[in-house]
Automatic annotation (TrEMBL):
It comes from the Eukaryota. Its main location: mitochondrion. Probable component of the PAM complex at least composed of a mitochondrial HSP70 protein, TIMM44 and TIMM14. The complex interacts with the TIMM23 component of the TIM17:23 complex. Component of the PAM complex, a complex required for the translocation of transit peptide-containing proteins from the inner membrane into the mitochondrial matrix in an ATP-dependent manner. This is J domain-containing protein. Keywords: Membrane, Mitochondrion, Mitochondrion inner membrane. GO terms for biological process: protein import into mitochondrial matrix. GO terms for cellular component: PAM complex, Tim23 associated import motor. GO terms for molecular function: ATPase activator activity. PANTHER family: MITOCHONDRIAL IMPORT INNER MEMBRANE TRANSLOCASE SUBUNIT TIM14-3, PTHR12763. It comes from Arabidopsis arenosa. The keyword Mitochondrion applies. It is found in: Mitochondrion inner membrane.
Length: 108
């Protein structure tokens, strides 16, 4: 009798496991990562491109721009193995968003 109960419990657990797996497989796929902009840099920096580089909206306050610049620069700083080109683009994006741009472009 105990063996029969154990077999029945195992069968119910197996059935529950199969149903749970099927429900897991049938759920809609939700992307786990943000989609990134799949394009190169434009010849002259625009406000839209600057916002995309820093990961902020085009109409954002200066403090948010500075926070975003710091966050992105820490990840891409040349002293930490990042690219000089990307660092110059990040700095150019910050200047564009803060309105300090003189439209000379990056150093590269």
């Amino acid at each position: 009798m105990i063996a029969g109960a154990a077999v029945a419990a195992a069968a119910y657990a197996g059935r529950y496991g199969i149903l749970a797996w099927q429900a897991f497989k049938a759920r809609p796929r939700v992307p786990r990562m943000r989609r990134f902009y799949e394009g190169g840099f434009q010849s002259s920096m625009t406000r839209r491109e600057a916002a995309l580089i820093l990961g902020v909206r085009e109409s954002v306050v200066a403090e948010k721009v500075k926070e975003a610049h710091r966050r992105v620069m820490v990840a891409n700083h040349p002293d930490a193995g990042g690219s000089h080109y990307l660092a110059s683009k990040i700095n150019e994006a910050k200047e564009m968003m803060l309105g300090k741009s003189n439209n000379t472009g990056s150093a590269f």
